Amino acid sequence: HTAGALSTRLASEAPQVKALTGERAATSTSQIVCMVVCFGVAFYQCWQMTLVMLFLIPVIATSFGVQASFVQKAAGDAMAATNEAGSAVSEALLHIRTVGAFGLEERSAAHFARCLDAPLKQFVRKGMTTGAGMGFGQFVILGSAGLAYYVGGRLYEAGEATFAEIMAVILLVM
Question: Which of 55, 81, 112, 152 would give a disulfide with 166, using CB separation of 3.0 to 4.6 Å?
């Protein structure tokens, strides 16, 4: 146990302990308590409607997961393509006197423009992917809400739930 090893462990493990016992733990605890209480009240109000809403949660969560993975992949590809253009500019600026002495300004600018072609394509692809992912996510969320309201209407029509109970369940679970 040398001093260097101990200080390295302390520097790397202290933030992990803080994360475990700090603000994240308090936030997680309050969210878990809130979720348990909301589901308890929702089951008390109308258990049939709560089961429908409980079924919709994984569907909505999956759509958010798919959306996030598409956006992250597109963002990573776009960032890699932008790095090459940044490297070309950095090199030209580092050797600005040489570029100026040999009259290579237009050649450097053309090389930079070529380097920006790939990021442009990546950013367009990222925009399309993000738009499609957001559209799909919103479709799933609004479709799920529509299904919940439809089931609630059927329960109300059958006399198994009141309007207040249906709205309470939807708002509590959402």
Answer: 152
Which single residue is written with the structure tokens 């809400």?
145
The answer to pTM > 0.85 is: no
Tell me the C-alpha distance between 36 and 40, whole Å.
6
Rounded to the nearest 5°, which phi and psi values hold at 103?
Answer: 65, 40
Q: What are the CA-CA distances from residue 35 to residues 7, 32, 142, 164 (Å)?
A: 40, 5, 21, 20
Tens digit of pLDDT at every position of the chain (174 positions):
566 666 667 777 777 767 666 677 778 888 899 999 999 999 999 999 999 989 988 888 888 887 777 777 766 666 666 777 777 777 877 888 887 888 888 888 888 888 888 778 878 887 887 788 788 888 988 898 899 999 999 999 999 999 999 999 988 888
